[in-house]
């Protein structure tokens, strides 16, 4: 059974954290969920890591601020910059020593990039591997929702306008009745050719637990982020990038540009899959994660990151940049 933890941030936001495995494991894997989702997104990965690696790997998931079982936050902190600071704080709190492998889906992958950008010394001292799942380093550059560019621009305008309204709705949560009505749209947007009914129920439940402030507030930051230059500084790390060829939010050019910036990246394009690869193609995601974990575990002990040394205590937590 996972251990339930709470990380309290300097601005009094409380993050819900689940951890499995010994605190002194050889490597800690931290899995970061996407926008409007929560840590439950990774349920098909948690058991697989435990079966493959046993006590050698500690697995951590957490709900980002304003999502899942974590508390809501001030609107000004609904930024990727803040999420990067939050990740640095989580690393210090739940994995204070030893190497860390970071696994990010969608907004979670962008959070990893922001951590690397804002805390380069801290990142270099701790991180031993990266897995990017259905994410981008180029904001909404490649996002056309699988439609013509003209229609995509209209959808983006409506989406960003609606996001601004939602961002001002505070800690309210989406009504369950509305989400049930929107389930076909959620299925179209997030999944590819096949969708297990249990997965769409889990995704709908996650959205129901996200505050309207987080649903609307993070949209501007997500659309504007550009971190390819940051990735080029991480070329020494073992890495993997996965994408579905039916992904309407982060289509294959997003993963291809990540692989171009990180030459060591193993790029996997999953035919017929959409945005929720950890659910739609768990075998591919599990295999890529296992390969990066093995490389982190196989590094000579003298070469492994050991502690949070680098740029000292995490700076800027609670202050968006």
Automatic annotation (TrEMBL):
UniProt keyword annotation of ATP-binding present: no
Name this protein carries in UniProt: Alpha/beta hydrolase
Record has Hydrolase as a keyword: yes
Positions of the AB hydrolase-1 domain: 30-286
Annotated spans, Disordered: 302-321
Lineage of source species: Bacteria, Bacillati, Actinomycetota, Actinomycetes, Micromonosporales
Alphabetical UniProt keywords: Hydrolase
Domain of life, per lineage: Bacteria
Annotated Pfam families: Abhydrolase_6 (PF12697)
Ranges of compositional bias, category Gly residues: 309-321
InterPro entries: AB_hydrolase_1 (IPR000073), AB_hydrolase_fold (IPR029058), AB_hydrolase_sf (IPR050266), Epox_hydrolase-like (IPR000639)
Signal peptide: none
Gene Ontology molecular functions: hydrolase activity
GO CC, one annotated term: membrane
């Amino acid at each position: 059974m996972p251990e339930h933890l709470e990380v309290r941030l300097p601005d009094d936001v409380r993050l819900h954290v689940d951890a499995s495995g010994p605190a002194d494991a050889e490597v800690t894997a931290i899995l970061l969920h996407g926008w409007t989702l929560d840590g439950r997104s990774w349920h098909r990965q948690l058991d697989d890591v435990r079966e493959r690696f046993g006590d050698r790997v500690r697995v951590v998931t957490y709900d980002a601020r304003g999502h899942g079982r974590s508390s809501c936050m001030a609107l000004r902190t609904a930024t990727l910059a803040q999420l990067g600071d939050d990740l640095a704080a989580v690393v210090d709190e739940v994995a204070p020593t030893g190497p860390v492998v970071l696994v990010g889906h969608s907004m979670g992958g962008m959070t990893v990039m922001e951590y690397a950008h804002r805390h380069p010394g801290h990142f270099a001292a701790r991180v031993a591997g990266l897995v990017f799942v259905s994410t981008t380093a180029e904001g909404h550059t490649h996002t056309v929702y699988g439609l013509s560019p003209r229609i995509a621009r209209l959808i983006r305008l409506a989406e960003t306008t609606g996001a601004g309204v939602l961002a001002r709705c505070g800690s309210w949560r989406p009504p369950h009745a509305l989400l049930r009505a929107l389930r076909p749209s959620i299925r179209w947007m997030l999944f590819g050719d096949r969708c297990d009914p249990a997965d769409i129920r889990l995704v709908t439940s996650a959205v129901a637990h996200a505050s309207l402030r987080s649903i609307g507030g993070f949209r501007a930051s997500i659309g504007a982020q550009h971190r390819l230059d940051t990735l080029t500084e991480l070329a020494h790390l073992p890495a993997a990038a996965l994408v579905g060829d039916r992904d309407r939010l982060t289509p294959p050019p997003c993963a291809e540009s990540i692989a171009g910036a990180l030459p060591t990246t193993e790029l996997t394009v999953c035919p017929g899959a959409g945005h929720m690869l950890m659910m739609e193609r768990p075998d591919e995601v599990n295999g890529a994660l296992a390969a990066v974990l093995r490389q982190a575990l196989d590094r000579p002990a003298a070469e492994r990151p050991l502690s949070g040394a680098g740029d000292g205590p995490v700076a800027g937590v609670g202050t968006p940049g």
